[in-house]
Specification:
homodimer; DNA-binding; globular; binds manganese (II) ion; 221 residues
Chain lengths: 221, 221
DNA sequence: TTTAAAATTTAGATATGTCTAAAAAATAAT
DNA sequence: ATTATTTTTTAGACATATCTAAATTTTAAA
């Protein structure tokens, strides 16, 4: 089935919200995510329901069907593979690739996706640490990840992922030398604002709760 | 100025027809090229005229403005660079890349185009021998090319280009071992149907006039 | 040079995707 | 249990890109 770019973006957004919440997605939440109006969302939900990509009951929100989830995973796969290409092969910074990948993820050619994956050496994660679904939409089993914002004083770990999509946030991380794979330790946690004092690469840094909530780590010992 | 995919395709088609004929492009010719109706073309010509991408007088056809030509060249540049990428890096056949490049040529990011060009080593021609405009829309001076269909008995040359866009034609060339760079010689020319007897790589082949008109060679001695 | 044919444009319709404003339903507050 | 608020849907409009059928202009023929 041939989907428009707009339809694909809705599917992807619903998938992303479902991953976060696990529940049904409300019209308003989706409208906010898509930076559009609730009425536009309602129209689109009807259309996607007719195409059997989601289940939708008036006033009750929506969830993806198996079909819809498969399409979402295919788009996510393309997005992340292209991000790897842009960083690994074209020397883009991790803060520059999301917007371009938003376009490239809509290119239609399974052969292209699969050959690109092979060319890149079957990467398992994208430049922001997000896992890349394989040709069947499956993720590799990956180590358990925790948001830095949920960590306690004394916790140690390895940086596994950061939220992509906001260049200024990623540029800030560049500036302080923050990279995937680094060892970090929570030196202290200020309970009144949730900010953290971090030790990383010999440096001491302070992260606001907001910043810490966009960083995922794997806890060690 | 942000153009729709459809607008870009019109600009590109007008450019291609202009290269062929050198004259103004008629509504009907453009309709045929775009596989659409003349009325749709008229609507689009008005829109593109308003955007100063072409000059158009009712019933008199159209030509690109400087502005329009620059945009056309930027799209052609992207198309051909992506074709090189697909063949050189992803191991696609030259018969498989045109349709995918038709999509990729619309990706908007000058930085991407320029980094891709560098990654590919600043290629001067695409897999079908078509020249690739540089960042300023300029072509390298290239040796004079002649259509094989215009050659006489006894002419010798090197294969420089083939018409892309028709997979079955390119697959036929694959089958007979025809490649860019080969030396060929016109053994004979049948005047009544314009077909040619060719010697290439030790083999003797017969090309119809139609096939010969889709092959360009550089004449030698 | 008047008529016939071909090419082109206009008029009116359809489909997609979006919007604002108003109506309806669900949820929260009294 | 009513009333008020929030959420969601519907109604009606607009922009893009396309189509068919009819009108107009240009070109070719008689
Ligand atoms: Mn991204
Ligand atoms: Mn990413
Ligand atoms: Mn091509
Ligand atoms: Mn080509």
């Amino acid at each position: 089935m041939q989907l428009s770019q707009s339809e694909e973006n809705y599917i992807k957004a619903i998938y992303a919200l479902s991953e976060e919440t696990g529940k049904e997605i409300s019209t308003n939440d989706l409208a906010e995510k898509m930076a559009t109006k609730a009425s536009s969302v309602t129209d689109m939900l009807k259309k996607l329901t007719d195409k059997d990509l989601l289940k939708y009951k008036k006033y009750q929100g929506c969830t993806l069907t198996k079909n819809g989830r498969e399409i979402a995973l295919a788009i996510v796969r393309k997005h992340r593979l292209w991000e790897v290409f842009l960083v690994e092969k074209l020397q883009f910074g991790w803060d520059e690739v999301h917007a371009i990948a938003e376009q490239l993820e809509h290119i239609q050619s399974n052969q292209l996706t699969n050959k690109l994956e092979a060319f890149l050496g079957f990467p398992k994660v994208d430049p922001h640490g997000d896992p890349i679904p394989n040709i069947n939409g499956e993720f590799d089993p990956s180590p358990k990840r925790v948001l830095l914002s949920k960590c306690e004083k004394g916790n140690k770990g390895i940086v596994m992922g950061v939220e992509d999509g906001e260049p200024s946030f990623l540029q800030y991380l560049n500036k302080i030398g923050f990279k995937l794979g680094l060892n970090i330790k929570v030196e202290d946690r200020l309970s009144f604002d949730g900010s953290l004092i971090i030790e990383m690469d010999g440096k001491t840094l302070q992260f606001s709760h907001l910043v810490a909530s966009k960083i995922a780590i794997q806890l060690i010992d």
